[in-house]
Amino acid sequence: MAECIVIRVNGHAISVRDGITVAVALLQADELHFRTSVTGEPRAPLCGMGICFECRVTINGHTHARSCQILVREGMQVVT
Amino acid sequence: MIVVVGAGPAGIAAALRAQECGARVTVVDDNPAPGGQIWRGDSNVWLTRFRASGIPFIASARVITGDAQAQTLLVETPEGARKLTWDKLIIAAGSRELFLPFPGWTLPGVFGAGGLQALAKSGLSVADKTVVIGGTGPLLLAVAAYLRQHGAHVKLIAEQASPAGLAGFAKELLRNPNKLLQGVALARHIAGSPYVTNCWIESATGQGRLEAVTLRQGRRTWTERCDFAAIGYGLVPDNELATFLMNSPNVVIAGTGELNLAILEGEIAGFTVAGYPERALGLYGKREKAHRFATALQHTFALRHELKSLPRPDTIVCRCEDVTFGLLCEFPNSRAAKLHTRCGMGPCQGRICGPAAEFLFGWNPGSLRPPLFPAKIGSLMPATTE
């Protein structure tokens, strides 16, 4: 079984399985507000394959990162 | 050097066949691992061979643009931009799902059908989640089976096609014993989840996240509470790069949304591009058969016109720029809509709303210009050629 690692989501430490994507880590933590649309709606992943850009979050200071295409790393800082 | 874009079934088959012929091959893919969507997280003969082949694999690489004259490709990777030079380019970019806008489709918890499966394959636990699946095509059944096997409670599968259309498809299945067996296996896995034809999801509701969907079958409408909705109306080829480069004689395009066809086209592309087209001769007949099956699929699961009436004036069509259906109705074509509303100008570059607008309004997709994906300014600066 894959080991667990710790990432921070909006400042809160959560333990997640290594090898999963950031999008999966957020959904697993019941975080469904990934980004806010230009008119203020909450949005979460749609396509799950890097096309729709609805899963964009800030990862380690990099904005507009597609969380469904990026694997979690120990100590990663994710801001939705 | 042969560069293959896409490490799904077509790309992997192409790369392996070209390598067999002695060609030097490199594969690039947007995902962190090879397999594409259908083989995401799987292990099979092709993937095992690919991993053992020693073929260089550039993961998490977005193709920003290509140059048909200079025969280069600009890709953005987590380590920075790279310029790849190719003698032959095989584009096996695969497909994405077709999404049709309906009230509430932007709520968190509404996923693509393949989208939710992709997330589940990437590690999302769906155990004890209540899911309603809707849309069209055999993918819905595959997704239902997968989610059920992983503990989800699939309340219902809403298939927009009519039973008469499906009967025609059943005949086609009888001509393809392998497909028939797959179908029987699927049917076993989805037993217990009603498969409702002539039926579609009309709206989704919830406070900040999905709580329920309303379904329609004929005159009857009803509501089902659910955690997730998984909705897909078929596949659209990811043909942006192909459209951009197709005038080059050294570019070959392979693969579609159907697995067998994708593998066969990949193999044919690999042999041909590596200079051994005669090795592919035995594959054309099979390709013809696979193509016939794919065409039958398209025919069976053609979209009904009622789906064009799903969006209300305030329903968002372009999710990147939040452009509503009502606003788009004021324009005669995609170009006018784009200029006035920014429809299709967000980060997805119209990949989601473009095919939706094509279905809703009959609009042709607008012109295509690089960068084909949003890129960092630094990536567009002159990169080192490899």
The structural domain count of chain B equals: 3
Assign the CATH architecture of chain A: Roll
> How would you characterize the largest beta sheet of chain A?
5 strands, mixed
**Helix vs. strand class of chain B:** alpha/beta
Mean pLDDT of chain B: 93
Largest sheet of chain B: 5 strands, parallel
In one word, what is the shape of chain A?
Answer: globular
Mean pLDDT of chain A: 95
Rough outline of chain B: globular
CATH superfamily of chain A: Beta-grasp domain
Query: From the helix content, strand content and strand pairing of chain A, which structural class follows?
Result: mainly beta
CATH C-level of chain A = Alpha Beta
CATH architecture of the largest domain in chain B: 3-Layer(bba) Sandwich
Low-pLDDT runs of chain A: none
Radius of gyration of chain A: 12 Å
N/C terminus separation of chain A: 28 Å
What is Rg of chain B? 21 Å
Output the helix-strand order of chain A.
EEHEEEEE
- End-to-end Cα distance of chain B, whole Å, is 11 Å
Task: Give your account of this protein's structure.
The complex is a heterodimer of chains A (80) and B (386). Chain A is 9% helix and 35% strand. Chain A has 80 residues and is mostly beta strands. Chain A has a single domain (4-79), classed as Roll (Ubiquitin-like (UB roll)). In chain A, the strands form two sheets. Chain A has a five-stranded mixed β-sheet, with helices on one face. The model of chain A has no long low-confidence stretch (mean pLDDT 95). Chain B is an alpha/beta fold and 386 residues long. Chain B has three domains: 2-96 and 236-296, FAD/NAD(P)-binding domain (3-Layer(bba) Sandwich); 101-232, FAD/NAD(P)-binding domain; 308-386, no CATH class. In chain B, the strands form six sheets. In chain B, strands 3-2-1-7-18 form a five-stranded parallel β-sheet. Chain B has a five-stranded parallel β-sheet with strand order 9-16-10-11-12. Chain B has a three-stranded antiparallel β-sheet with strand order 4-5-6. In chain B, strand 2, helix 2 (45-52) and strand 3 form a beta-alpha-beta unit. The interface between A and B is large, with 34 and 38 residues.
